[in-house]
Amino acid sequence: MDFQDYFPVWKKLTPAQQERMLGRLTSRKVNKGTDIHGDTLNCTGLLLVKTGQLRAYILSDEGREITIYRLFERDMCLFSASCMMSSIQFEVCVQAEKDTEFWVIPADTYKSIMEESAPLANYTNELMASRFSDVMWLIEQIMWKSLDKRVAAFLLEEAAIEGKPEIKVTHETIANHLGSHREVITRMLRYFQSEGMVKLSRGMVTILDEKRLRDLQK
Amino acid sequence: MDFQDYFPVWKKLTPAQQERMLGRLTSRKVNKGTDIHGDTLNCTGLLLVKTGQLRAYILSDEGREITIYRLFERDMCLFSASCMMSSIQFEVCVQAEKDTEFWVIPADTYKSIMEESAPLANYTNELMASRFSDVMWLIEQIMWKSLDKRVAAFLLEEAAIEGKPEIKVTHETIANHLGSHREVITRMLRYFQSEGMVKLSRGMVTILDEKRLRDLQK
Question: Where does residue A110 rank: exposed (0-12), middle (13-18), buried (19+ CB within 10 A)?
């Protein structure tokens, strides 16, 4: 499978636009844990995931993190190319959560094609709207949901992504996803364990009672 | 001044597109406090503000509110036309904060022009990126800033909008902007008053010490 099969509106680009994009494209392979895009203002470019998993997060001055969305196979990251639009006045960090293969489209190449291509500009709109929806969901979670519900939702989502109830994750990592502190997460997980909903072991959380974790959401 | 002078990429539309847009346009005049767009899934259309001030907010199941952005003269509201893009999976409410005059562009009209017009699609991208930046700022505020800083920031912003230190606002309204409770806001404002930063009177907060409110942000 080539880039052409992964890029969503490929067939709606003109041959000249396709050639321009292919000519500037690079592909990268990184190991789990690699920082792909930092929160300084350099412009890595648009990332299109071939295999693996990325997470986009923001960072506070004190080094606290919160995950804002995740990218899986065929997903594209726009905000790693924030220099592309003057109205993008924030910066995200992107990190590989698994060994990941992806393509990088330079921001200026993408921008120049988007300016003349209504299909690419409309696709970009849908992409941004979709991330916007993720972020609005996140605001609702932060504002109206208590932390027990958010931790339960995180564990259920992880188990769904991995397809099994054993989740390899540290308490520190969960805290970084949810914008919380390790100590707070540890306390919550111990409560879940005492209630028989999960089992804790070194670097691992195992879901024992999925139904009760789901019931917490209500 | 006509719609043509307010609509940002008017001159980049074709005469046929301009005619289509003008033919479907309506204009409205509402009083302060009017609900313009609800959180049910009906699609009011895109709103372009001529004069006045609107606020967009989200609503929790329990009826708590939080303001996500504001719209002033020449600003356009996209998310009151959420049916326009399938990826917009959230709903905002829009309310007039002052007596407001605005145009409504039906979502299907805007969408059909955007699909063929790269300039309009690119403008829409910038617009969404700009709102996205507002919302990312909001997440940072909610996550990393304590409520005293957020109340101070709100008062300073209101004073800047009105161009004077007397802010006509109830504690309930401040709570609705910040996603908090009236009692909590009242307690905070009384603390500010005891510190000499503000003076409270019926339906009014007067800023006495702008510098100290600003220092709170640091």
Answer: buried
